[in-house]
Amino acid sequence: MIREAEIEDLPRINAFLDQHIETSMFLRSNLATHGLGFSDHPHSTRAFVWEADGQVGVFGLSKVGYVMAQMPDMPLEAAQAFGHAITGHTVLGMTGEKAQVDVTLRGLGLGKAKLKMLDDEPLYQMELADLSETRVNSRALLESDLGPLERWFAHYLEDTGQETEADARSKAAARGRAAFDNGRAEVLLIDGVPVAMADINAHVEDVVQLGGVFVPTEHRGKGYGALVTTAILQREAARGAKQAILFANNPIAARAYESIGFKQIGWYRIALLQTPSEVRS
């Protein structure tokens, strides 16, 4: 019923995930970037394939403990089989289509686990051919941005409900360094000063997924969220991207994305466990 994916499975897995790309970006991107199985990278991922009675599903577990899945109309049996396959591994949380997250966590025995974040966010898509061509003043991160960036990430992690104030501060420096090292973040410049940021958290062929869009409190209400989003999408479109996906953490962000052409296509669930939990068969 369920088995760990092998190299020869990847073309079929990729084709399947591409049919549901809007809710498969993390899993698809991890496999495209890091291949199958765990490596030294935190986003490296073990993948598992479920096939039964004509139904197909793909499950993933990243090295740091985030669960991903793609299986429309997922039966509890499939999620339980995945749980058995990853028995002994620690889970931090899961993101994905709402019903699939619910069934998967139940199958892992975590359906009643305490959560520090449970958020259903509007899922948006945009064809980049519709993007404004008016150039926005922005640039990639510089090492000199790391000080302000640490403060920004502390506020971002707290504002989005991902971490408590204390945990956000302790993790902010590492998040800022990671954003600088991966080279995908962009900052909006007003009079030469960075006032907002955006990042790409998944990239598959000509599709990108945005994350980490943040405007510091003192700069809010000025349209900078829409501008920095436009800036990073202009950069990605110049590199060949044709479609963008994101999910909005709050109504103000949603209106900003809609103002530049994003259309809501569904909902996306984020479920983060209060305490990392081991999967038990």
Automatic annotation (TrEMBL):
Listed InterPro entries: Acyl_CoA_acyltransferase, GNAT_dom
Write out the entry's keywords from A to Z. Answer: Transferase
- Keyword Calcium listed? The answer is no
Pfam families annotated for this entry? Acetyltransf_1
Q: Which domain of life is it from?
A: Bacteria
Q: Does the keyword Lipoprotein apply?
A: no
- SUPFAM superfamilies this protein is in? Acyl-CoA N-acyltransferases (Nat) (SSF55729)
Molecular function (Gene Ontology), one example:
acyltransferase activity, transferring groups other than amino-acyl groups
Domain N-acetyltransferase per the UniProt entry, residue ranges: 136-281
Q: What is this protein called?
A: Acetyltransferase (GNAT) family protein
Say which species the protein is native to.
Answer: Falsiruegeria litorea R37
